[in-house]
Design a protein that fits this description.
This protein is mainly α and 104 residues long. It contains 3 helices and no strands. It is elongated. It has one domain. Belongs to the FliE family.
């Protein structure tokens, strides 16, 4: 049951950072905003955008128009974004597997 709790906590933290919480409450019932599918679409868009920025920085550096520090920063940001999305995905899969194991 520990996996389900970890997944719920990971989802809660991600959801709270993406949407406003009404009345400052930290309860799931207080979260309003976009559906989960739209939340995932936004996360994937951010990941794609970060990867695109990193590619542009690498191309600029290869052409001599960008500093190496800018390239490293863009690549690190893209990597952190991708790792976050992968971690959330893993927790969602674990939570789904836990739900599927529950007796009816």
């Amino acid at each position: 049951m520990e996996i389900g709790t970890a997944a719920a906590n990971a989802y809660m933290k991600a959801a709270q950072s993406a949407v406003k919480v009404e009345g400052g409450a930290d309860e799931l019932s207080g979260i309003s905003g976009q559906p989960f599918g739209q939340f995932l679409d936004a996360a994937i868009s951010k990941t794609t955008g970060a990867a695109s920025q990193a590619e542009n920085a690498i191309t600029s550096a290869a052409m001599g128009n960008a500093d190496l520090v800018d390239v490293v920063t863009a690549v690190a940001a893209a990597e952190a974004t991708l790792e976050t999305v992968v971690a959330v995905r893993d927790q969602v899969i674990k939570a789904y597997q836990e739900v599927m194991r529950m007796p009816i």
